[in-house]
Every structure is written in structure tokens, then in C-alpha cells.
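Re: folding output
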Amino acid sequence: MGRTSARGRRNRVRQARLIAELTQAQLADAVGVTRQTIVVVEAGDYAPSVYLALAIAGHVDSTVEQLFGPGPTATVHGQRREAGDEDAARLEQQPGRR
């Protein structure tokens, strides 16, 4: 079975990961994949398995539906967030962030 393509599909994994204050490497280690897998999932170039999607959602305190479902907002850590990367940009600019 080959790689599952998700080209053109937007998700909120990167936004949720940054809100959870996790690096790509930390999230990858927590869910048992490589950092490169997290990179392609966040980019929308790879559709994760149900098991990986559940693991990612669990580690960023969200749900699969909130991360991968349609809609302009996501709820992360109990807060509604717009699908844009405003929070991600703010978190990346904090001192000590990679």
C-alpha cells in the first residue's frame, strides 16, 4: 500500500501543535512517527491513517474532526481558533522557539 495523498486538503495540525507548544519533533516522537511525517501531514500532502490522526489529536488536546474536518474554525485546548495561522505566527516569534 502506497502513500495516501491529501493534496489540496487544509488541516489545522500545525496551528494546534503550536498552540500546544510542541515542536514537530516532539509531536512526532509522541505519536511514533518521523518529523518528516508531521511535516507532510501539516502541509496537507499526506492523509494520516485513522490511528495516526487520533494520536495527533490526542497529543494536541483536540479531536480528529477539529483538526481535519471542514470548517473555518477549530477548538484547541477548549478555545475556538480561526483556521488561519495568526496564532502560529505569534507563537513562532516567541523567544526560545525554533
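--- second protein (sequence, then structure) ---
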Amino acid sequence: MVVARGSGGHGTCKPKPGSNDRFRLRESFERAMTIGRTAKRKSVAPGKAAAGKRRHSDIVASVTARPQAPAQRIATSLEEDIVLGRRHPRERLVEQDLSERFKTHRGDVRLALFELEKKGLIQRIPNRGAMVRDLTPNDVKEIYAVREELEVMAVRILPFPVGANSLEILEDLQRQHSAAIDAGDLLTVFYSNLHFHRALFGLCRNACLIETIEQLAQKAYGIRSYANAFPEALDRARRDHIEMITALRRSRRGDLIELTRRHLIPSPAAYIRAYERRFGDSNGADQ
């Protein structure tokens, strides 16, 4: 199974409280995906299967994170602000303000903004600087139309039956997601949902398709917080995940395709409603 890789680095800047815990979560999920990828390539003797499962659970629970480089730490923090709806479309990102907030020089801030621009989360406008990317309702509809086709393609070509180890990884990630919903921890909800879908679409084994799905998913990071503000939307997502795992276990491709389409509906709908309330238009022509 091929999975899009995360990024990381080293540094000595002191992180803000709680950031190490969040990075441990991200790192643990990446390690979990590595185990899943390795398991798809190697056959595991029956006597070793249980030990492998225990190692997976242990890693998810207790991986120690490495410190992040300053630019990566800034990029991660701003990305999480966007994901959680703390920063809104068209909100300016002033280099001097950010360098003071993170107690570093503007060179690190510029590198961080460059990384976020590559992901499609922010935009730079001549003579106005950087700001959170303004996705208009039409942009969102176009992104999600393509996402739907690509994600349906992935579940249409993934081979059945799905191995027990892959199902266990998905179940572990779903338990993380469900527990985060119950705890009201929206950042963990985001990361666990992200890695659940990386693991799911990774089952298709088409590296080009997986990479393209990941790129479009990044463009939608700032959209998801709008649906996550509603408990019923979070509960619907939780139930969708459970039903997706059931469809995989029972090799019910039609059910999986329908669930994949349905799962994409709440976020763009909530974002568009909020956008039109905030800006009073549906085409975003006013910049």
C-alpha cells in the first residue's frame, strides 16, 4: 500500500504548550501507516501476526516525536489554525506579526508561508502580502466534484478481499476518531479522519491516484472545520467510517462507492453557507 508521506524536521525552538502532543499524534499515525504498507508487501507467519498487531497498537499509543524545524513548526501551527477555523478566508498573515508570535526571524516565516502556499492553503497577492486562501463556492464545488470522481475511482479499483491487517489499521484509526469526537478534540478528529482516508485509498495501490487524491484533500483542509462545528455532522462521519469498514470486510463495492460519495457532502455544503453569510455573495469576485 502506498501512502502519501508527511513532512517533518529538526529544530531547537521551544514549541507552544500542547504542540508536542499534537506532533506525537501526527507521527504515530505516520508510523501506523508505515506498518500497514510493510504488511501489504510481506507475508506474516501466523505465529507472528498477533505480535505485529500489538506492535501497531503500541506505536499508535506511545511514539516519541522529534522536534520540528522553526519553519515547519510555524507552517504546522498555521495549518492547524486554518483547519480548526481559527483563521478565515481572506484573513491576512503578516510576516512581522508571525515572527513575533513564534519568536523567530522573518526568513522562517517566509519559508512556512511558502509551504502553505504550495499546499493551496494560503495565497500571496501583490502589494497585499499573504492571506488565507479565499475558496469561492464555485472553487469548492469544482474541487469536490473532482475529489468525488477520484475517490470513487480508488474504491472501485481496490482489490477484494481486503486483508485482516489492513482492516485492523482502519479500525484502530476509527477508534481514535470516535474517541476524539466524544472528547470534543477537533484537532485529533481532523488528523484521525485524514489518516483513516489515507489508509482507505491506499488500498487501491495506484500511487499516482493516491498522490492526486492527497493533493486535492490538502486544498480542502480549510473547508472541513465548517461541518465539524455541528455534532450531527461529526456523528454522521463516524458512522460512515464504520459502514465503510463493514463494506470492505464484506467486499460490498457498491455500498463502499455510495458511502464515499455521501461522505463528501457535508463539508462543502457547510462551507458555502458560511461563506455566503460572511461575504454576501456566491462568486467571490470581491477581493
